[in-house]
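Cast an eye over this sequence plus tokens and walk me through the fold:

***
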Amino acid sequence: MATHCRIELDGDLTVHRVAEWWPRLLASLSPGTDLCVGLAGAARIDSAGVQLLLMLRREAAARRMNLQLEDIRPEVHALLEFYRLDPGGPVASPESCE
């Protein structure tokens, strides 16, 4: 049975903060762990923030991990949909963060 790890992203997910977040997110990816990323505190997101989430999804899939984005603000959700980044994603399952 996999363990669960939850990370809350806060502030802006912009080009100014992506370099700060990437090492923390990467360190949370370990085999046998399901990762939940809470986005309630993500006030703004730009293309660098979207790219961060895409890289995280790719890394999680490569490690055969479940990844779930949760608590997504409407404006962030709209941007994710614009980029066709399904917030649930193909590597996630709804029960992964329970």
